[in-house]
Amino acid sequence: MNAVPSQAGPDAQFRAYLEAGEFRLQQCGDCNAWVFFPRLLCPTCASRALVWRKVTGRGRVYSRAVLKRKPERGGDHAIVLVTLEEGVRLMSRLPTTAPEAIAIGMPVIARIEHAGDDPPTVVFMPDEDRP
Ligand SMILES: [Zn+2]
Questions:
Q1: Which domains does the chain have, with CATH numbers?
Q2: Per residue in 56-97, pLDDT tens?
Q3: What are the residues whose beta carbon lies below 5 Å from ligand 1 (ion)?
């Protein structure tokens, strides 16, 4: 695996943190807005003072879409949109939860998934500790 050069773009930086086992998002040092997808400029105030901060990974399912798939190809699976505590939304999956068991508003917690040779991604699991 190649080291990420320091001048790498914000997307590469995001993935490099995931590689290191850290879920970080950018926060604007000027207006405090959280930023996702990774960017060079704050979308709220256009500041360049974006700082990578660790996030709790806690969020709630905002919406879900079930994609039909034949059982021999892995069965139906769901794509979810999760709103993090920080207020940003990201598209992801709940790999350990059956699509029909995913409810809008359910509490979830992020986990970094390393699947084979694929780059690490953020997935979610039900967060049993919260109502
Ligand atoms: Zn800002």
A1: 1-54 (no CATH), 56-131 (2.40.50)
A2: 999 999 999 998 888 888 788 899 999 999 999 999 999 999
A3: 28, 30-31, 33, 42, 44-45, 47
